[in-house]
Amino acid sequence: MGLPIPQTLSPSSMGCYTSCPLAFKFSYVQRLPEPPSAPASKGTLVHLALQHLHWRAPEERTIEAALADLGRASRELEGDAEFSGLELTPEQLEQFRAEAEVLVRRYFELEDPTRVRTIGVELKLSAQLERVMLRGIIDRLEIDDDGELVITDYKTGSTPSERWEQKSLAGVHVYSVLCEQVFGRRPARVQLLYLSKPEAIIAEPSDVFMRGVNQRSGAVMEAVRKACSRDDFRPKTSALCDYCSFREFCPSFGGDPQQAEVVMKERAATAAGCPPLPLAV
Ligand code: SF4
Known about the structure:
Mean pLDDT: 90
Distance between the termini: 11 Å
Shape: globular
Strand content: 15-25%
Number of strands: 6
Bound molecules: iron/sulfur cluster
Largest sheet: 6 strands, mixed
Helix content: 40-55%
């Protein structure tokens, strides 16, 4: 019997399918819970702090304000399972917060936020293309000095190699398409702000890029539909396997994918102190 077909694609789910169809099945078809990870949680915390910063009036966006916003974000996320599940010791928590503060301080090396004309943060957008419904969350949308739209995406991981840079930009061009479809205007620029280095990667969405998103997202959706109808998702090993939450269930590493659903749901329920979640039928 075929598997349920995801109704939408996002930059992350498209990237996931392209990198490894089996990891896509675990994450986006079976929707298996993944254990919390410190780097991902740090990213969530820093994104929320910068979100608060850009809600402020431009002249208030100082480093001191950003650090206060980091504290506020930290308090807001304290009870969230993504954070409590990390089970950090007091020393680890201190280190975690110190690293988040470094990222926030480095943000100020990339731009002066008092000069940014922010018009939206954390914008959830979706649009129907020819063969697929796309969705995504834009970290920040602003207007530049020429009145043009600019999309900004914050990255809290390491700066990618040249090869991965193209993959990262492919994801960001999905945001350009969403922006054009929803607001009727193509952004003049999309920028990835890598806070850890810090480094900015900037691209101008051309007709070629926009057509590329349409074709690529349609092709990925077709492939996902076929894979779901045959339950045929193959593992594709790469450097990403080192960070894969499902590696122990991956046949490329001697695992059994059939075990993933039961084990991952049991672990999530135990971590949350709840009875096991019902299995999908
Ligand atoms: S370990 Fe590697 S090949 Fe296996 S599911 Fe994860 S990403 Fe795919």
